């Protein structure tokens, strides 16, 4: 199927897309990475970029210093992902940072960023500060996967060479589906649906994606979900707060990455505008996911605590704070948003 011309391919973005393609064609060594606390768009855009570089016979390494959520591990079948401590030495490489809204959230050793030839930033967070020497940033795009799709299909048009097959289409589709909430969220545009149709036509394994992401929860997950929902806290009829402790994870034999599917429950209650999900990853590390429906900017709340993300979905991390301290700090700031 020919490239679908969509909203993102304006003249402004074509300039940046062409710069990225020209640079990749004229360089040979790349590090592909993304943001902390990986999600579907993070992983999907990274793996698709790796597939693109592979098709161009470029030398690359995929680095990410954080654990995959269990329901997304199926995407990395070839075991491409490495961590910074597995790298002995790198020289003459360029970093391609995908889906990372700020320099600080790039999830590799900062020494690798500082010694790189430069950073190419490809992202759709509206809070992005243009930290790359080439920046393709479109806050109106559904996902970073959509931006990677635009880059690859632009290359296909220029070179009249098909690149996207099943192995690239599948992670792109996974990132698109997760970042649009299975096409429920307000960031779903006509271009998103056209892209989805094209990826399915090119062999995206849609059913494999749906089964792994949405239909593979363990019995233990439903038990922790039940306990968590039983303790939901509704504040001022507008804010819903849920907490999963490290003790709860240990009790049910679950890992931190097994519980992300709980997040939407905090938002999807009649009358609630803002959902807050507090997850105690370790005794000294608490991660928070924020979700809103229509008018609260989650990035404003996340940024207060050094986090970031999207208007309707953001997150932040606390260290060396108790659960009660984190709860009180979040509620105090969240109430100001109303």
Automatic annotation (TrEMBL):
<protein>
    <submittedName>
        <fullName>DHHA1 domain protein</fullName>
    </submittedName>
</protein>
<feature type="domain" description="DHHA1">
    <location>
        <begin position="248"/>
        <end position="335"/>
    </location>
</feature>
<feature type="domain" description="DDH">
    <location>
        <begin position="29"/>
        <end position="175"/>
    </location>
</feature>
<dbReference type="InterPro" id="IPR051319">
    <property type="entry name" value="Oligoribo/pAp-PDE_c-di-AMP_PDE"/>
</dbReference>
<dbReference type="InterPro" id="IPR001667">
    <property type="entry name" value="DDH_dom"/>
</dbReference>
<dbReference type="Pfam" id="PF02272">
    <property type="entry name" value="DHHA1"/>
</dbReference>
<dbReference type="GO" id="GO:0003676">
    <property type="term" value="F:nucleic acid binding"/>
</dbReference>
<dbReference type="InterPro" id="IPR038763">
    <property type="entry name" value="DHH_sf"/>
</dbReference>
<dbReference type="InterPro" id="IPR003156">
    <property type="entry name" value="DHHA1_dom"/>
</dbReference>
<dbReference type="Pfam" id="PF01368">
    <property type="entry name" value="DHH"/>
</dbReference>
């Amino acid at each position: 199927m020919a490239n679908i011309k969509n909203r993102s391919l304006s003249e402004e973005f074509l300039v940046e897309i062409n710069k990225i393609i020209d640079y990749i064609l004229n360089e040979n060594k790349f590090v592909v990475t993304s943001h902390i606390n990986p999600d579907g768009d993070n992983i999907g855009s990274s793996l698709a970029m790796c597939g693109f570089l592979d098709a161009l016979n470029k030398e690359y390494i995929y680095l990410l210093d954080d654990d995959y959520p269990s329901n997304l591990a199926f995407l990395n079948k070839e075991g491409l992902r490495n961590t910074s401590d597995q790298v002995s030495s790198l020289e003459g490489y360029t970093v391609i940072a995908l889906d990372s809204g700020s320099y600080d959230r790039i999830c590799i050793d900062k020494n690798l960023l500082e010694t790189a030839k430069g950073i190419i930033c490809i992202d759709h967070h509206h809070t992005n500060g243009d930290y790359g020497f080439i920046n393709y940033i479109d806050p109106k795009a559904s996902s970073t996967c959509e931006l990677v799709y635009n880059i690859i299909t632009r290359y296909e048009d220029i070179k009249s060479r098909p690149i996207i097959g099943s192995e690239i289409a599948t992670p792109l589709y996974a990132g698109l589906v997760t970042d649009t909430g299975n096409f429920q969220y307000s960031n779903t545009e006509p271009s998103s649906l056209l892209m989805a149709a094209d990826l399915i036509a090119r062999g995206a394994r849609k059913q494999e994606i749906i089964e792994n992401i949405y239909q593979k929860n363990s019995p233990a997950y439903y038990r922790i979900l039940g306990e968590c929902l039983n303790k939901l806290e509704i504040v001022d009829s507008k804010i819903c707060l849920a907490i999963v402790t490290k003790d709860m994870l240990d009790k049910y034999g679950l890992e931190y990455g097994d519980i992300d599917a709980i997040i939407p429950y905090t938002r999807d209650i009649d009358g609630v505008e803002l959902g807050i999900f507090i997850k105690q990853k370790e005794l000294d590390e608490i991660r928070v996911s924020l979700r809103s429906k229509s008018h609260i900017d989650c990035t404003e709340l996340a940024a207060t605590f050094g986090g970031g993300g999207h208007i309707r979905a953001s997150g932040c991390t606390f260290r060396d704070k108790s659960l009660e301290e984190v709860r009180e700090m979040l509620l105090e700031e969240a109430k100001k948003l109303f």
